[in-house]
Amino acid sequence: MTAIRQLSNSTGSIPAAASRFLRYVDKSPTPFHATAVSADMLEKAGFIRLQEAESWQDLIEAGGRYFFTRNQSALVAFAVGHHFRPGGGVHVVGAHTDSPNFHIKPISKRAKEGYMQCSVETYGGGLWSTWFDRDLSIAGRVIVADSHAQTSFTSKLVHIKEPLLRIPNLAIHLNRGAGDNFQFNVEDNTLPILGLSAAAELNKESANASDDAHVNQGVGTPTMTSKHHPVLLQLLSKELGCDVEQIQDFELSLYDTQPAAVGGVDNAFIFSPRLDNQMSCFCATEALIGSLKNPSALHKSSSIRAIALFDNEEVGSVSTHGAESNMLASTVRRLVSIPVKGIRLHGDEHLEATAYERAIAQSFLISSDMAHAFHPNYPSSYENDHRPKLNGGPVIKTNAKQRYASTAPTTFLLRRLAKIANVPLQEFEVRNDMPCGSTIGPMMSKTGIRTVDIGNPQLAMHSIRETCGSADPEYKIRLFEAFFEHFETVDKELKVD
Fold first, then answer.
1. What is the pTM of this model?
2. Which terminal CB of the chain, N or C, has fewer other CB atoms within 10 Å?
3. What pLDDT was estimated at residue 191?
4. Rounded CA gap, 312 and 17, in Å?
């Protein structure tokens, strides 16, 4: 095997894939935005947007490229091989769009001693101490009336880029023990401040005016301005180019306004929010597009290449747009039950009763999340022989208790692909005396799809600011491209059942 090509060098140049990731993550403060950014990349590469609620009959063609979104926060994209038949395999890279953060509560208006504050709810298992003393803003989606008549409505994305909120620490002089043992109450001590009393007076006047304007909603009906600070709604209306009265509802998250960056000696590191798991979303999208750059890429293929970017992994994946939903399985079922234009079938072959089950048996999923890199300050937290290094390549994640879905056959096939791609692989297992996290892998394997769990190594997982290697994004993209291009051949090399 040829020597692994080094992706960083002594001049400190930034690997191209790392630079592209910085742009991706800076545009993606929420799962809604990450989905929109991936969708934009796909459309620019010639993928056709589909609607789940519509029939796909006569739309799917051999060699065609398609995608759809669900809930604006999850996405499936796929490309159809020219020789695909009902019962053929679907080869998928799966990831998740969400990360731990604070969500603004349905009633967020709070005020205390001249401070305007916003009530927030924790989402996922975040390192919440890292959110203190950061320049925070808001992003998400807003339901907006298309006109003052309020007879039609649209869900619009919003991304306010200037610092608006802050969760300040208590000074060390008033909390002497905090220097050695920082403790806080996640309900009482994480309320971000939004403004001061002078703005609060304007806030009050705006609230009164807006409540008068909403009198037609009915006596006692809570209005947006009664639930949220009117100045917050004014910021949203300005960003969206609408009137406050047109704002009907929203899902908003806090995020850190500091851009992602490459740093360290020789630019060895990426310092970024949401590495877990927008790094995998980025690499999966790039790899699917990259695997199709050759016009003849699908001419000999009898399978479907796909990515599935799910939401809500950080809170259990149980939503309609999470990994435990029917999003991927229903896509496979649809594709094996309709004739694909340009592929000649034998009679009603697409109606064959076991086509879906045969397709699942021939399918394969790479569950791509992030992995724990070895932390030099906490060596006792790692098993001696499983200490992944930054810029050492993707990590195979294994757990006998099935917190990860990797098996000997699935890891073997991944190693064969890595050899073709000339990509190094590492191993991770958690210590026996520590609990193990999980991924979408075990959830997706319930469908019957063979699954392997992998991830790029990183430090400070679930912090507001995480760290990974700047060379690792390109390694993962190359591995995913090899998966899409060569899995049909590699899969035939191993006999299991």
1. 0.93
2. C
3. 97
4. 26
